[in-house]
Amino acid sequence: MIKAEKMLDCFMDRLKADSYFDSIKIIRAYPHSVKPTLLKNAVVSAGIRNIELEGESVMQNVRTGKYSIFTDIFVPCSFERRALEDIVFRISADVAKLNVASIEISAASSLHTEECFSMRAVFTFRDEIGFEEETQ
Known about the structure:
Blueprint: E1 2-3, H1 7-16, E2 25-28, E3 43-54, E4 64-76, H2 82-95, E5 100-105, E6 109-111, E7 116-130
Parallel strand pairs: 1-7, 2-3
Antiparallel strand pairs: 3-4, 4-7, 5-7, 6-7
């Protein structure tokens, strides 16, 4: 079972534990805005996209469901565009053991104002889902 409040932390901890990401900044997503400086290295921004609960148990109070976490990956234009794909596939490998149900990867795009390449990947997981207040 995963606690809803810990989903994103668990996801990000998996990435931070991989030495591949030592030089890549892993952050919680916040609304995009124009940044006054240009990127010098890759950034992975992660956030919860949605949570869907289902009551699939028989005679038990167990909630299973799906939850999706998105990652926005940004790399400076000085990097090869392939760096986006390398990062998204490494993320996929790191979180594969978390009951991945599906992965959606968008096409790469170029952000001219920020002078970087960007790609979004959405990871959907299936698991039993609980909430902190239920255990207190």
